[in-house]
Structures are given as C-alpha cells and as structure tokens.
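Much of what follows relies on a compact textual record of a protein's fold. Here is one such record, which you should read through line by line:
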Amino acid sequence: MNIKPNIQGKGTGADRTSGTTETMADSQSDREEESPVDSIPAETVSSPVQIDQVFEILKNDRRRAVLRYMSEVDSEVRLGQLAEQIAAWECDKDVSQITSSERKRVYVGLYQSHLPKMADVGAISYNKPRGKIEPGEHMAFFVEYLPAECDGTESRWTVYHQAIIVCAVVLSIALVAVAIAL
C-alpha cells in the first residue's frame, strides 16, 4: 500500500481546518472498511484446513467421488463397498455389473493413496487395518467446495455453451429468413 505524507498535518495529529484529530490508523481503518475482504464470512477466513490442502484433495476425481459418497451415506462404510460404488460410477455401470478387475483397480488406488491422503487432512477417518471409512472432522468443509454436477457427465459450463450456440443458430436462421423476405 502506498501512503503519501500529508503536508497539511492531516493524519499526523490535529486537522488545522476543523480542529479535530485524525490519526493515520483512523484513516487507514476507513479504507479497510471498504475492503472486499470484509464481505468474506469469518468461518471461511479461519478455516480448519489450508486452502492448498482443499485443492489438493479436490483436484482428483476419485477423491471427490469419495467425498460425495461419504456425504450421501453419512456413516461408516467398508473399503470394498466404497470401491465398488466408485468403480460403478467410473465405468458408468450398476454396482452389480462391475468386474473384479474394475473393483480391484479402484480398491488399490483408494487403499494406497487417496484414503490416507484424505485422512491426513481430516476429510475422512480411515481405519486402514480394518478397512473402515467414516466422515472426518473436517469433511463438511471439503463437501462445501465440491463442484456441482449436472448429470455426472457434463459440466454446467458445457450446458450453458450449448444453449448459447443453439440460440445463436436460431437467431442466425431468423435473420437470414428476414433478409431473404426483404
């Protein structure tokens, strides 16, 4: 922040024109009141997890799937059950239709990498020897930042862009029809 010295004495003691005193801290607090940081809720500023940790967890599709599943179930689940559901989502199949190799591929990734990383930041509670997973103390914080999904296959932006393209094509056809009619 660049603060210019006030030659007339304002900000350093008495204001010579009105007889009031204004300190540099007072004028700085006036500027801080207009700051956009004030509009951020206090619970966001003092979060239990660092923002880098949030992005680290949420950047992986499988970890996001774990959070979604755990927030739906909201109770203890077994690793095998979790791996089956995530494999079914990834293969776009029903749980009863996934093969053992599809399930194993997800199981190993969860067991060795994803679940320990999520447990380290409190997103889940993971009992590795027993293969049990529960919502962690900070899980609600991570779920709050999960991206919303339309139907699981397309992002909202894709749908918006498709709608804009359709509108543009319809408008272009109408303009061409009007131009021909004239």
Summary: The chain has three domains: 1-32, 51-144, 155-182. The first strand starts at residue 12 and ends at 14. The beta strands are 12-14, 21-23, 77-78, 124-127, 132-135.
